[in-house]
């Protein structure tokens, strides 16, 4: 069996089993009140889980309420670093590594130090790295700070359907590409690959006659699928061996992804340079040369997608972010 990129998260059958999120407090509690300027969202622009939070923060207009720290796309053995900032320190938190916030919160923490994390600025402690809850709470608990015209990304009447599709998309697509890439046995890889493409086929069918995944406006479900699709050809197809088809060879999903990419709040949050450098230059086990591929050509992202004809409107009665 091949050597694992993350040994402690690899089963005896060679399957990738992601660690649980360690910090699961929620802002909007007695301990962590909703307060503008108090919390810092730490992300890597490369990371699909963090990318969700960046998009939702922007769509809801929470930029002034929750500040953003961006780490270097390349992790070293001490984890995520603030080497993009002056003096190699996050200017608000005053730390050089994200690990410092984790260890300040739990000195015995022995897992991976992950983005996205929300850090309480006054105490320097991590409130949450529970990425699925972070975006939901931006929608539900930060309403007082939403911009005027902010869309409803998690409407009450559609929640059950959104949750159901999110669960499938998480298992087979968002985490499915990692299960392909980090598998250390042929069998585990085959299983993840089959589940991934079966799900992408089902999503293609669903999206062939409706513009968005649930209802007729953009919801949390679209954001979660988008962050994996946008990385598909640049990284997953080669690096994670998810190569039955490229995104550009799956016409419905490709048009759907372009539709979202060109919707305000999406494309401007995508950093293909960070995305490619992170994956190819951080996973030594998968890419020992650390060479970052030059392609693919990105021009096609701006070609007309034609999906307006399916009806729906991106923000419903809301307005796009400025
Ligand atoms: N918190 C989740 C998901 C978030 C996640 O995996 N983020 C990645 C970047 S995409 C990360 O921060 N990895 C740090 C590491 O592997 O050391 C986890 O623990 O698996």
TrEMBL record:
A GO-annotated cellular component: cytoplasm
Look up keyword Cell inner membrane and say if it applies: no
Gene3D superfamilies linked: 1.20.1050.10, Glutaredoxin (3.40.30.10)
Q: Where is the GST C-terminal domain?
A: 155-282
- Site location (Lowers pKa of active site Cys): 236, 279
Chain sites annotated for binding glutathione: 80, 112-115
* Listed GO MF terms: glutathione transferase activity
Protein name, entry field: Putative glutathione S-transferase
Q: Which organism is it from?
A: Allokutzneria albata (Kibdelosporangium albatum)
